[in-house]
Amino acid sequence: MPDPVRRRTVGPAGGATGALPGSEGGGVVFARSTTVQAQPESIDDGIAHLRDTVLPQLQEIDGFIGLSLLVDRESGRCIAASAWQSEDAMRASADQLRTVRERAAEIFGGSLQIDEWEIAVLHRDHTSRPGAWVRATWVRGDPARLDQAIDVYKMALLPALEEFDGFCSASLLVNRGSGLGVSSVTFDSREALDGSRDRGTTLRESISRDAGVEVMEVREFELALAHLRVPELA
Fold first, then answer.
1. What InterPro entries does the database record attribute to this sequence (predicted)?
2. What's the pLDDT at 231?
């Protein structure tokens, strides 16, 4: 295994990551999330900038394998996540993307927080569609028991999620040094997300208890951009 992924914070934005792009070939892949507390009136301009300007720039960088963007229009919280074939590729891209991130922050109208993760689980039932929504759950656990928690996610949560109407995909990102993690579950529509809420709460309580983790935050987002390859890391 590589060394634990370090978390770097730039500015006071706060947050982590959401729906994640993935690798076609399996193995260990990594993600960098960029959280911005945007001005709500700037969000559409920010989405267009990521789609039309940032994504083509990322596609020119070795090791880049996908980009997603989550948006909460009410709070202004936006989370862009890029996936990388290796930890080396992710870290080598950091300096290349510094000015790209700064420009994106200007357009969104907010400051940035940068986090780096290992993608421990990534399962897709089918490709996301326009109008998809994501429920993200941030957790914290004992780093020494992280692999046990990952196994619970794979063996207990994923099969249960497959039974939800409108389920699209699920991912689990982890920081092996801190014990932090974030689970993102994507649904086909806002209606499917809403319909899953009560059942999802019950399932989350059961899974977090079995995995030995503490739920820190649960948020729901519009999936505004998903340039993803078909993943399977489960």
1. Dimeric_a/b-barrel (IPR011008)
2. 54
pLDDT digits (tens, 9 = 90+) for 18-44: 565 544 445 689 999 999 999 999 999
State how far the alpha carbon of 183 is from the alpha carbons of 91, 135, 192, 213, in Å: 23, 8, 18, 12
User: Distance between CA 116 and CA 173 in Å, rounded?
Assistant: 9
Q: Give me the domains of the chain, ranges plus CATH numbers.
A: 29-233 (3.30.70.100)
């019950």: which residue's tokens? 202
- Cα–Cα distances (Å) from 100 to 25, 56, 93, 104, in that order, read 28, 11, 11, 6
**Paired residues of 69 in beta bridges:** 80, 225
Answer for the pair 73, 40: CB distance below 8 angstroms, yes or no: yes
Helix (H) or strand (E) holding 228: strand 213-228
DSSP state letters, 131-182: T-EEEEEEEEE-GGGHHHHHHHIIIIIHHHHTTSTTEEEEEEEE-TTT-EEE
- The distance in angstroms from the start CA to the end CA of the chain is 17
Average pLDDT (111-120) is 93
Higher-pLDDT residue of 20 and 149 is: 149
Strand 64-71, strand 133-141: pairing: unpaired
Q: How far apart are CA 171 and CA 18, in angstroms?
A: 8
Q: What is the pTM of this model?
A: 0.87
